[in-house]
Amino acid sequence: MRLIHCADLHLDARMTANLTAEKARERRRELLLTFVRLVTYASEHQVEAILISGDLFDTRKVSSGTRNAVLEAVSSHPEITFFYLKGNHDTDSFQMGWQQAPENLKLFGGRWVSYPLGEDGDIVVSGIELSKENEGKACLSLPFVSGKFHIVMLHGQAEETGKKEQAEIIRLRDLRNRGIDYLALGHIHSYREGQLDSRGVWCYPGCLEGRGFDECGPHGFMLLEIDGKSGVWSRRFVPFALRTLHTVEADISGCKRTAQMEERIRGILDGKKIPNRDLVKLVLTGALSVECEKDLLYLEKSLEAEYYVIKIQDRTRMKADLGTYLLDGSLKGEFVRLVMGAEELSEEERGEIIRCGLQALSGEEVEV
User: Fold this and answer.
1) Banded pLDDT at 367 (limits 50, 70, 90)
2) Which residues contact 354 (CB under 8 A, 6 or more apart)?
3) What gap in Å lies between CA 145 and CA 306, rounded to an integer?
4) 63 CB contacts (<8 Å, ≥6 apart)?
């Protein structure tokens, strides 16, 4: 039997942080399209069940268009069983107006629910939606399943996956040696997995599509193949995102003009071979002369046709032989001495003020 484990689709997310209003609307449609593509993939590859481990939606109020598209994808594929466990972003608004849930859509609640899978029921899917009411007790009350391949669905922050966040905590120690073969988790937006105990593994598949530059890299889902009778199984991560986000550092040390910077940057980007459908955050690093000419807006405009989105973050530092100015009797020298004598300023602030000031005194347009 083949199953898909996905999570954190965050349909209807606003995504306005790095995108124009038009592209944010387009990306929202693409998130929904990726879910529909996932269901089509499942149907074409004889996948019998899709496990959605929380945060199918991003907001409390689900738009009617998104709700109808998800319901249509589910109800039009009765050969696939959908297991939907709500996450901390999900609410019951998705279910508003239902006369009856599709028969192939299985839901969970605040108590453990288990569903059999397969002709002989030799695979069992159990899940519980974590809340303040069952916090700290849910994992301890997991029913023990004997003689079956046991999949457990949860949404929250596993204690061994990093620092605690404002989310339900999953104590992995409470789930060890409880007869779990595969712990299907949601909440972490990047692919992670590890050994739960001698028998089972835990896994976060990550989100299907990266939404911001804190979600760079490949995104997709887990594909499981399970022989319920023998207990033999395998899993693999399947990249599936329509677009990928990238963060690229470009050292532009020594460049004196924007044209030189552009040439250096293009060489670095060409070496990365990033598809033009993707999103790129370009981080400029290195040491530049305080008198260098640097036009970030020009750089961004010159590169924007190469990618779906490009953002530039400037982390360069100013480098100057200020000793030549300290003895200079010109207005530039007086300005540098004045700034260098301002003890309340940090070294970085002095460098930036001197850069802007020298550009202004040279008659150049100042890029702040």
Assistant:
1) low
2) 290, 318, 320, 322, 335, 336, 339, 340
3) 54
4) 12
Which of 34, 39, 97 is closest to 63 using CA atoms? 97
Q: Which two tokens stand for residue 192?
A: 């992670």
Tokens of 137: 């007790």
CA dist 5 and 314 (Å) reads 39
The residue count of the chain comes to 368
Place of tokens 């484990």: 5
Position 146 scores a pLDDT of 87
pLDDT of amino acid 298: 96
Of 6, 46, 19, the residue nearest 211 (C-alpha)? 19
Cα within 13 Å of Cα(341), Cβ side: 7
